[in-house]
Amino acid sequence: MTDTNPPEETDPDPSIADRVRSHVSENRTGMFHDLVFAVAWVALVSLLFDLVFVNAPTWAYYMFMLTGIPAYFGFFISLEIAKKNR
Question: Where does the DUF8119 domain lie (predicted)?
Answer without folding.
Answer: 15-85
